[in-house]
Write a structure and sequence with these properties.
heterodimer, A: alpha/beta, Rossmann fold, 6-stranded mixed beta sheet, 4-stranded antiparallel beta sheet, 10 strands, B: abc type-2 transporter like fold, 2 domains, 4-stranded mixed beta sheet, two-stranded parallel sheet, about 5% strand
C-alpha cells in the first residue's frame, strides 16, 4: 500500500502550552482515518499544521511525498479541507461559491461544471444552486462548506467535524458522500465528536489527548483491547470524564 | 502567478460590491448622494447655475458728492454673483449678518472717495495717496462666503482704479483670500476637485472591513488552504479596488457634471485626473490593509479606519480649503492634499499637465501612495492573523 500521510515527531507549542507533542502517524492511501479527542486535545492544530496554516515548532509531515512546509502550494493542490467554521461567501450563490473555489484550483470550465453539478446534487443543494448562500439554512450552509472542500476532487480530504449541527438526514447524506470518497480511492481524515460516526465510517482511529496520540487501531481492535461495548466507552475510558474547554 | 485565480477573486470582489448593501452604499451611493446634496447647497445645480451672495453696504464716505463710493456700490451691484443691499447704519447690517440674511457687510470708509481721488491725481506717486482700509465683515459660518466674496470686491477695486491684479500698490487695502478666479465659478466648483479625494478615502474603511469580516467568518482561512499564493491574492485585491475606484470616479464625475461643474479642459486632462485618483486609491488600499492588520474585529476595523480616514478627509479634500493656516500646513503630510491640489490646478486654475505644480503633486502622490501600499502589504503578510 502507498503511504498518503507521514507525520514524524510533530510538535506545536503556543507560548507555555503544548498543543501537539511528538506526534507520529502514518496513513495509507485510500484509508478513512478518524482523529478523535476531547475539546482542545490538539486535533484541529494538527490539521492546521498539515494544511500549512500554522508552522510546527518541531517535526515534519509529508502528504503524498510532499513536505507540508517546503511544498505548501503543491500540498494545497492535493488536499481539500472542510474547516470547522461554516465558511462560505454569503453574497454568492451556492453554484458561484463552488465556481470560485474551482477557479482557485485552476479547474477547466467543463470539469468544473460537471463537478459543481454533481456536488450540488449529492449535497441536496441542486434546487437552491442559484440562491444566495445567505438564504441557506444552517444545514445547507454546512453541506455547501463540505462541497467547497471537495470541488477539485482532492486526493486527500481533511474533514474537521463535518457533521456538526446537521440533522440525521443531512448527516447520513454526508456519511454516504464520505464513503463514496473512500470507494474512489481517496484518503479521508475525519475529526468528529460523534463516536458512532467514527465507528460507522473509519477504517482506523487515533485518539489524541493533551497533544499526544494515546491510542491507535481499528474501532473493533480498540473496543476489544479495552473490553468495552463501543467506541464511545473506549473514548471515555482513555480520556476520562472531566469536561474540557477549548481556549 | 495564475491569472485564473486573480480573475476568480476579482470577480468575487465585484459581486460583493454590487450585492452587499453596506458596500454598495459606502462606495457608490454615499458619494453620489453627498455630491447632489452638497452641490445643491453650495451653488451647484442643473445647467450650471451660479450662487448669489447677499452683500450689505454701509456708506460712511463723507467726501463731497461721494462720487467714488457710489461708483463702487454700482459696480458691486452690476456683478451677477452679488445682490447688494444698502444699509443706512452698521448696526442693522450687523444684525442681518449675524442672522444669516446676508453673507457680508462692506463698510465704505469716510476717506474712500478722497483716497481714490488722490490716486487719480498722481497714479505713480504713492507717497501722495490718502491711504485707507475697506473693512469687510464676513459670515464666518459660511465657508463659501469667506472664500469667494473678498476676491470679488478686490476685483471691483482694481477695475475702479484701472489696475490689474499684479499692481504692486493700492491706496485701498483689502485682505484677499484666494488666488482663484471667482467671477465665473460657483462655490460648488471650488469644492468639486476635493470631492473626488473625499469619496476615495472611504475605500480605507471598505478594505479594512472586507478583510476583517472575511477573517471572522473563516473565509481567509479557507482561501489560505487553496493553492492561491499571497501575490495572486493581493493582486486580485488591488485590481478589484482599482476597478471600484475607477467606477466611483466616473460616477462621481458624472454627478458633478450634472451639478454644473464643467471645467474648460481637454480630454487628456480628464484622463490624467482619473489616473491621479486611481494612484491615490492605492494609498487607501494600503491604509485599509494596515487597519485590518491592527484591528481584532470588523467593528474595531471600522473605528480604527477613521484614524487614517479623518486626516485625509479634513486636511486634504475640499474641507481643507476653509481650515486654519496650521491645518493647511499639516495637510501637506497627507496624500489627499496633493491630489486635490493637482485637480484644482488642472480644473480651476487651468494649469497644464506638464506644469511644475501638477508634476510635483503627481510625483508626491505616486511615491507616497506606493510606499503606503507597500507598508500595508508587508504588515498584512507578516502580522495579519487568520
Amino acid at each position: 500500500m502507498t503511504v498518503a500521510l507521514t507525520i514524524e515527531n510533530l510538535t506545536k507549542k503556543f507560548e507555555d502550552k503544548v498543543a501537539v507533542e511528538n506526534l507520529n502517524l502514518q496513513i495509507e492511501k485510500g484509508e478513512l482515518f478518524g482523529l478523535l479527542g476531547p475539546n482542545g486535545a490538539g486535533k484541529t492544530t494538527t490539521i492546521n499544521i498539515l494544511c500549512g496554516l500554522i508552522k510546527p515548532t518541531g517535526g515534519s509531515a509529508q502528504i503524498l511525498g510532499y513536505d507540508v512546509q517546503k511544498d505548501a502550494i503543491k500540498v494545497r493542490e492535493l488536499i481539500g479541507v472542510c474547516i470547522q467554521e461554516t465558511a462560505i461567501y454569503p453574497y454568492l450563490t451556492g453554484a458561484e461559491n463552488l465556481e470560485l473555489f474551482g477557479g482557485l484550483h485552476t479547474m477547466d470550465k467543463k470539469t468544473l461544471k460537471t463537478r459543481r453539478d454533481m456536488l450540488l446534487d449529492k449535497m441536496g443543494l441542486a434546487e437552491d444552486a442559484k440562491r444566495k448562500a445567505s438564504k441557506y439554512s444552517g444545514g445547507m450552509k454546512r453541506r455547501l462548506s463540505l462541497a467547497l472542500a471537495l470541488i477539485h476532487d482532492p486526493e486527500m480530504a481533511f474533514l474537521d467535524e463535518p457533521t456538526v449541527a446537521l440533522d440525521p438526514q443531512s448527516r447520513h447524506a454526508v456519511w454516504d458522500f464520505i464513503k463514496d470518497q473512500k470507494s474512489r480511492g481517496k484518503t479521508v481524515i475525519l475529526t468528529t465528536h460523534y463516536m458512532e460516526e467514527a465507528e460507522e465510517l473509519c477504517d482506523r482511529v487515533g485518539v489524541i489527548d493533551h497533544g499526544k496520540l494515546i491510542a491507535l487501531g481499528t474501532p473493533k481492535q480498540l473496543i476489544a483491547e479495552n473490553g468495552v461495548k463501543n467506541l464511545e466507552e473506549v473514548f471515555i475510558q482513555l480520556t476520562g470524564r472531566n469536561m474540557r474547554e477549548e481556549i | 502567478m495564475k491569472l485564473q485565480r486573480v480573475f476568480a477573486l476579482t470577480k468575487k470582489e465585484m459581486k460583493k460590491t454590487v450585492r452587499e448593501p453596506a458596500y454598495l452604499f459606502m462606495i457608490f451611493l454615499f458619494p453620489i448622494v453627498f455630491v447632489f446634496a452638497f452641490g445643491a447647497s453650495f451653488g451647484g445645480g442643473f445647467g450650471g447655475s451660479q450662487s448669489t451672495y447677499q452683500v450689505g453696504v454701509v456708506n460712511f464716505d463723507a467726501n463731497g458728492n461721494q462720487q467714488w463710493s457710489q461708483v463702487f456700490t454700482d459696480s458691486l451691484s452690476n456683478i451677477s454673483l452679488l445682490n447688494v443691499n444698502v444699509y443706512t447704519d452698521n448696526q442693522t447690517a450687523q444684525v442681518d449678518l449675524s442672522e444669516g440674511k446676508i453673507q457680508a457687510v462692506i463698510l465704505i470708509p469716510e476717506s474712500f472717495s478722497e483716497s481714490i481721488t488722490s490716486f487719480y491725481a498722481a497714479p505713480n506717486d504713492s507717497g501722495s495717496w490718502v491711504n485707507t482700509t475697506l473693512p469687510i465683515y464676513l459670515d464666518k459660518g459660511s465657508m463659501v462666503a469667506t472664500q469667494a466674496i473678498p476676491p470679488i470686491i478686490q476685483q471691483v477695486l482694481y477695475a475702479m482704479m484701472n489696475q490689474n491684479q499684479q499692481a504692486p500698490q493700492s491706496p485701498i487695502q483689502l485682505e484677499t483670500a484666494s488666488l482663484v478666479e471667482v467671477a465665473q465659478t460657483s462655490a460648488f466648483d471650488f469644492m468639486a476637485p476635493g470631492m473626488f479625494t473625499f469619496a476615495s478615502v472611504f475605500l480605507i474603511m471598505i478594505v479594512a472591513q472586507s478583510f476583517t469580516v472575511d477573517r471572522e467568518n473563516g473565509m481567509m482561512k479557507r482561501l489560505r488552504i487553496t493553492p492561491t499564493t499571497s501575490t495572486e491574492f493581493m493582486t486580485s485585491q488591488i485590481v478589484s479596488y482599482l476597478l471600484i475606484a475607477l467606477i466611483q470616479a466616473v460616477l462621481l464625475f458624472a454627478v458633478v457634471y450634472i451639478m454644473g461643474f464643467r471645467p474648460n479642459v481637454e480630454a487628456p486632462v480628464y484622463l490624467f485626473a482619473f489616473v491621479l485618483v486611481l494612484i491615490f486609491s492605492l494609498s487607501n488600499i494600503g491604509f485599509g490593509l494596515i487597519t485590518a492588520t491592527i484591528a481584532k474585529s470588523s467593528g474595531a476595523a471600522t473605528g480604527l479606519s477613521f484614524l487614517f480616514l479623518l486626516p485625509q478627509m479634513f486636511l486634504g479634500t475640499f474641507v481643507g480649503a476653509s481650515l486654519s493656516g496650521a491645518a493647511q500646513v499639516a495637510g501637506k503630510f497627507v496624500p489627499s492634499y496633493y491630489v486635490t491640489d493637482a485637480l484644482t490646478s488642472l480644473f480651476l486654475r487651468g494649469a497644464a499637465i506638464t506644469s511644475q505644480t501638477v508634476l510635483l503633486d503627481f510625483a508626491v502622490v505616486s511615491v507616497s501612495c506606493a510606499a503606503i501600499l507597500a507598508v500595508g502589504i508587508v504588515l498584512y503578510d507578516k502580522y495579519f492573523k487568520i
